[in-house]
Amino acid sequence: MAKIAISYIEGIVLLIIALKSDIRSRKIKNIVTLPFIIAGLLTNLIFSGYEGLRDSLLGIIIPIVLLFALYALRMLGAGDIKLFSALGAVFGLRDVVKIMAYSFVSGGIIAFVIILIRKNAKERFLHLYNYLKSVLLTLHITPYTEFDRKEDTGKFPFAYAIFCGGLVFIFIEIVARV
């Protein structure tokens, strides 16, 4: 029970700090994620031994492997992947996969709301269509977006989605334990 409480606290603090960092600087730096990777590894090692350490290490590595293509296409930033890896260190492999799923659903909802507010659905779908058409016709994969382009109205810090996905995961886990 203590391990679970510590993990939830570590996870919530990490999510808050990462969100604030992404809002302020549009980056999630190593100084934010590295302490939580270390804390997650130590927490899992102390409470679950080498099996916990192994789960934590897999929780760090698997998000990198699964999300690398999205990073290469510039659909996710490196900080987003580091945040998922830090959450993987804290919660372990199985749970970080759940957090990733909840985060992508949250991201879809956030994007939908942004499209509704900005009333630019046609522009966004045209951008996606032209991107996919270019990739299929040229067989050359290019970045979907440039993070530094301020005029791109289709972007938002993905830390919002990860924050929401992480909180949804923690809420569901707490309710399931009651």
TrEMBL record:
Q: Which residues form the Prepilin type IV endopeptidase peptidase domain?
A: 12-111
Which Pfam families does the record cross-reference, listed alphabetically?
Answer: Peptidase_A24
Superkingdom, taxonomy of origin? Bacteria
GO CC aspect terms: plasma membrane
The GO biological-process annotations, alphabetized, read as:
signal peptide processing
InterPro entries referenced in this protein's UniProt entry, alphabetically: Prepilin_IV_endopep_pep (IPR000045), Prepilin_peptidase/N-MTase (IPR050882)
Q: Name one GO molecular function term.
A: aspartic-type endopeptidase activity
Q: Which residues cross the membrane?
A: 30-50, 56-76, 96-117, 158-176
Provide the alphabetized UniProt keywords. Answer: Hydrolase, Membrane, Protease, Transmembrane, Transmembrane helix
What is stated as this protein's family in its record?
Answer: Belongs to the peptidase A24 family.
PANTHER family documented for this protein: PREPILIN LEADER PEPTIDASE_N-METHYLTRANSFERASE-RELATED, TYPE 4 PREPILIN-LIKE PROTEINS LEADER PEPTIDE-PROCESSING ENZYME
What is the name attached to this protein's record? Answer: Flp pilus assembly protein, protease CpaA
Q: What is the lineage of its organism?
A: Bacteria, Bacillati, Bacillota, Clostridia, Eubacteriales
